[in-house]
């Protein structure tokens, strides 16, 4: 029944409407970002529309610094702060660690037919041309409208996809051909138990094949294993990218509340760890 429901969704106009609404929202966001960049403002609030636009800098770090690995290793948390993808291991390592492979979480992917892609691009191009007639407030209203359409359809799509994925796995149907394309069950590259990998190949294996999880590092810093100042001494910035974020003021406030709650949680963990050391 779940497969039948998602098939109906994909072969109706709803899936196409969902995809196009996302594409249209992205086009509008780009136009608004260009408008804001021309004003030279990093952040703008459109209070009446309940929308905020802002340019945010994100840093990319070199996480292959040997000193950083040594610091984590010296505090006994290296295996818990690193993730290793199965494909990063060589054949010999895969053989010795095959029982330590962690199952990946499969997901459902749709591959539309080429003719549908062509029609989709035509529709989006026409919409893009029509936006030339809108002022900034019209663009904001259009963005909110397209985001509303996408969010409503995406929630429905997500529920159908999860149910269909379970049914396809249970019935071992990994590919379903549709008139509008194809549904496929995809299994991402699995990870490896890093504790087993560390016992097998030590720091060298984890450094060569692993990727440091900075969120886990922050968690251990909050627990008092080391300070973030020590970590930052070994973090080399490789690149700084600026991305434009457009969201409702309500969403921004919720994000800020979440960040404050996380910061308070880390502070509480750090305080508790200090009291533990004093005891």
How would you describe this protein?
- This protein has 279 residues and is of the alpha+beta class.
- It is built from 10 helices and 10 strands.
- The strands form 4 sheets. A 3-stranded antiparallel β-sheet has the order 1-2-10.
- α1 packs antiparallel against α6 and α8 packs across α10.
- The longest helix has 35 residues.
- The mean pLDDT is 89.
Topology:
Elements: H1 2-11, H2 14-39, E1 43-46, E2 51-62, H3 66-74, E3 82-84, H4 91-96, E4 101-102, E5 107-112, H5 114-130, H6 136-170, E6 175-178, E7 181-186, E8 191-192, H7 194-209, E9 210-212, H8 214-222, H9 228-232, E10 236-248, H10 249-278
Helix pairs in contact: 1-6, 2-5, 2-6, 8-10
The largest pleated sheet is described as: 3 strands, antiparallel
Low-confidence stretches: none
- The helical percent reads 55-70%
Which strand order do you get reading across the main beta sheet? Answer: 1-2-10
The topology string of helices and strands comes to HHEEHEHEEHHEEEHEHHEH
Count of DSSP strands:
10
Mean pLDDT, rounded to whole units?
Answer: 89
**Helix- and strand-based class?**
alpha+beta
Number of H/I helices? 10
Radius of gyration: 24 Å
Q: β content, as a range?
A: 15-25%
> How far apart lie the N and C ends?
59 Å
Indicate the overall shape. Answer: globular
């Amino acid at each position: 029944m779940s497969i039948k429901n998602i098939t109906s969704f994909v072969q109706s106009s709803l899936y196409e409407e969902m995809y196009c609404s996302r594409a249209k929202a992205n086009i509008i966001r780009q136009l608004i970002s260009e408008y804001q960049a021309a004003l030279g403002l990093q952040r703008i609030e459109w209070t009446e529309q309940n929308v905020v636009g802002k340019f945010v800098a994100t840093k990319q770090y070199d996480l292959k610094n040997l000193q950083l690995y040594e610091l984590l290793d010296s505090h006994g948390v290296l295996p818990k702060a690193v993730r290793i993808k199965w494909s990063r291991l060589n054949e010999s390592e895969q053989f010795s660690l095959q029982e330590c492979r962690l199952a990946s979480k499969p997901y459902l992917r749709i591959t539309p037919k080429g003719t549908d892609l062509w029609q989709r691009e035509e529709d989006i191009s026409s919409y893009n041309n029509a936006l030339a007639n809108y002022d900034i407030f019209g663009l904001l209203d259009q963005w909110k409208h397209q985001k509303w359409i996408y969010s409503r359809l995406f929630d429905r799509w997500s529920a159908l996809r999860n149910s269909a994925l379970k049914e396809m796995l249970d019935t071992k149907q990994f590919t379903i051909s549709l008139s509008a394309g194809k549904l496929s069950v995809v299994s991402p590259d699995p990870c490896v138990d890093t504790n087993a990998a560390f016992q097998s190949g030590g720091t060298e294996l984890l450094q060569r094949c692993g990727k440091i999880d900075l969120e886990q590092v922050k968690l251990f810093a909050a627990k008092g294993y080391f300070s973030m100042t020590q970590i930052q001494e070994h973090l080399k910035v490789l690149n700084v990218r600026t991305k434009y974020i457009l969201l409702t003021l309500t969403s921004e406030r919720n994000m800020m509340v979440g960040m404050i709650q996380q910061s308070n949680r880390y502070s509480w963990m750090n305080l508790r760890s200090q009291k533990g050391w004093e005891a």
